Amino acid sequence: MALLGAAAGTCLPLRAHATARGSAPVILVVGDSLSAEYGLARGSGWVALLEQRLQRQRPGARVVNASVSGDTTAGGRSRLPALLERHRPDIVILELGGNDALRGLPLATTRDNLRAMIRASRDAGARVLLLGMDMPPNYGERYRAEFRALYTDLAREENTAVVPFFLAGVADRPDAGQHFQDDRIHPNERAQPRLRDNVWAALQRLL
Description:
Blueprint: E1 26-31, H1 46-57, E2 62-65, H2 73-87, E3 91-95, H3 98-102, H4 107-123, E4 127-131, H5 141-158, E5 161-163, H6 192-206
Parallel strand pairs: 1-2, 1-3, 3-4, 4-5
Helix pairs in contact: 1-6, 2-4, 4-5
Domain SGNH hydrolase-type esterase: 29-190
EC number: 3.1.1.1
Keywords: Hydrolase
């Protein structure tokens, strides 16, 4: 499950590399329902749209979507080692943390899990792109600020790429309601191209 938010941002600077394994990279996406096409027609989510664009520019490129609706950072952390061994990705995109907040888990636990995932990916030879999230206003501005900062601070500490707010241009627009499903939690098909573009802007630097 993903959350509405209102903290738009741009990608932080990162070092550019050529992929270490050639011109046809493997990208592993580990996320929750935002990336698992919850409530969407198969093939219409941002991950599928990203793969379509990537294949046009890098023939043979492959995107593995290992996202699970309802997943937490603890779940992602436990699943990651097997995914890294099986798919040997060049780049890992981490889109997790919203469900931790919904369940009231300590921010320190979320941070520790994400840090472990970043380091495990790096140890496996992959670069990492971290997708940041926000919480609804009713969680209080102090908590929201700490939650948002978790992603950017962690990316800075671990010297990894980050999109500070994955839902920028979707959840923070005046007509946001038209870009979400009836539950007002999950973006609809109209929003998926923008989510892809938010990721693509940072991903290009890693490629």
